[in-house]
Every structure is written in C-alpha cells, then in structure tokens.
Amino acid sequence: MLFVTAEADMPSFLPAAENPPCLTTWTNAEIAWNLFIAIPDPVLLRFGTRPWKPRKQRAAAVGAMTWLHASLARKSRPYHRPPPEMMWTAAYKDGMTADRSSRRTALITGASHGIGAAAASALAADGYDVAVTDLDPRDLATTVEDIRARGARALPVALDIRSEASIEACFAAILDAFGTLDVLVNNAGVPSLRKPAVDIERADWDRVLSVNLTGTFFMAQAMGRHRIAAGGGGSIVNLASTHGLVGLGGASVYGIAKAGVAHMTRMLAIEWAPHRIRVNAVAPGATETKSRIALSSPQHKAKALARIPFGRYAEAGEVAAAIRYLAGEEASYTTGHVLVVDGGLTAA
C-alpha cells in the first residue's frame, strides 16, 4: 500500500519543487491511481467461492482504501500546499528581504531620546543600518553617535509625520542612502494629555490625533507601499500604549489615539500578510523618559507606581528589547500582535 508522508516519498508526477517539506494532501484521483497500481490482485480477491469480478471488486477495494487514506489523513492533519505567493521560503523566514548579503535597514521615528533612541541603539547592535528622525535633526546627534559607535551606518532625517510631503521626502532620503528599508518603528508621538474629557478642545484633539494616530498610519502606509513595490517582506512595529488597552480617567484623547494604533496594527497585519509584511505593536506602560520626568509630579508618580505590580517604571531599554524582537527574525511568524510591556499593570 502506498502512503505519501513526506517530500522524499512523492511520486514523480508531483513536482517536488512546488511541495514544501511537510505532509502533502493528495486528490482522490491521485490516491485511487496509486492504489490501483500498488495493490496486488490477490489482495483484492474476496474470500469464498464466488468468482473474481475484476472491474467491480477492484473498484470497491479502491473506494475502501481511498476512504481509509482520507480518514488517516484527517487524523494526522496534513498541511495543505499553500499558493506559491504565500509560501514562506527560507529566504523569507524572517519576513525581511530575500537578499541577505546586504545589511538590513531600519527607520525609527522620534529617536532623539527615550524609547526611540534606545530602539535605535538596539537595532544598530543587532546589525541594522539605522535612519532616525525628529522634527529637528540636530537633536539626533547623540543617537547618531551611539549608532555609529556600534559599527552601523546612521542617517539623521528631519520629519514631521503630520505632513505627507515630509513623509515622502523622508522615505526618498532613506532609499537614496540605503537603497531599501526593511523595518519601520513608528515611535514618534506627543505625550499624554492630562485633561478631563469635558474640558477637551478641538485643538487638543487635533494635536494628539494628528501625530499619534494619523501620522502613524501614513508612515505605515508609506512603508507598506515601499515593501509591496520591493516584492514584499519587511516589518512594522508601532508604538501603542497601555492607555489604549485599559480605561484611565483624565487621559481620554491619548488613550483613544493609542487604542486606534493597536487596532490599526491588526487591520494592516491582515491586509498585508499576503505580501509577507509583518505589522505588530508594543504597548509600554509608564516608562522612565525625559518627557515623563518633566511632566510627573512626585504625587502623580507615587500614585502611578502604586498601580504597577513591579512597583517601578519601565526603562527605555526594556521597551526597546520588545521592539527589537518584533522587528527581527525571531518573530517571523508573529503579526497583528500587541506586545504589552507594563510590569503587570494590565494583568492586575
């Protein structure tokens, strides 16, 4: 009896190059044909005195064996062959580019300090050439120096993610310098607005949403267009927040924007999966950055720490480690995921 279990066992009439090294599902016609040529006639003879009727009894035996093979196949749950455009070959196992001879490249927005600067340092240490952006590129001097100290190329770029023209100019500069872009870290944003919902003005709403949600979307769109034109692959890591996952009074606009980022991540992950573009997000809790230190009073900090099971703020490097994971090959099968880094806040 002939059962196909692996690529090495495939019959010659099935093109081996089109089959991944896993269990392969045959059509009923293929099963029937192999059973027809593989089962010797004596096996198909019924015991007893009735004469052998070749056509009728061979057909019955083939039908029975076809059913048996299908039943076994269902129990072993073989993988069905995916369409060619969805096959994850070894060259694309990390969701990046097929050409691994060139260095990988990454773009990190809002990288002058804090999480953005830490992410730039982590990716440079991981072998990426890194483009970093801020409204004023002169503020990127320390980040650029750190990237180059790790043996990577650094490209500081002025960027206002509220402007589509600025986004286009940014991508043009990066592609001119690096030739391609493998990873986008959507980190740029404005800090949480602490204001009761009844006091929010349209200008407050527009200031936060235009950067934290709208700008993030159009940066992802530009990256998606580039990667699709380049043949697919690549990774986008958005910065969401625990504010977008749980309710918190007095920070409604910021929380709404970050909730939008989390769901945008899932929507784009589904839409771009056929192009092997992975889209994920990191949702940090309170993180020790310059902006937080500037905005937090001792009373506010004490109240915030009381809600965190770890009893401390995250360090920027801890959030950067999550970004590095989602950007790289270790997360090659991860897309549409929001990775929470919050010291247990949302679990409490």
TrEMBL record:
Listed Gene3D superfamilies: NAD(P)-binding Rossmann-like Domain (3.40.50.720)
SUPFAM superfamilies the record matches: NAD(P)-binding Rossmann-fold domains (SSF51735)
A Pfam family hit: adh_short_C2
Cross-referenced InterPro entries: NAD(P)-bd_dom_sf, Sc_DH/Rdtase_CS, SDR_fam
PROSITE patterns: ADH_SHORT
Molecular-function GO term, any one: oxidoreductase activity, acting on the CH-OH group of donors, NAD or NADP as acceptor
PANTHER family referenced in this protein's UniProt entry, alphabetically: SHORT-CHAIN DEHYDROGENASES/REDUCTASES FAMILY MEMBER (PTHR42760)
Family: Belongs to the short-chain dehydrogenases/reductases (SDR) family.
Name assigned to this protein: SDR family oxidoreductase
UniProt organism field: Propylenella binzhouense
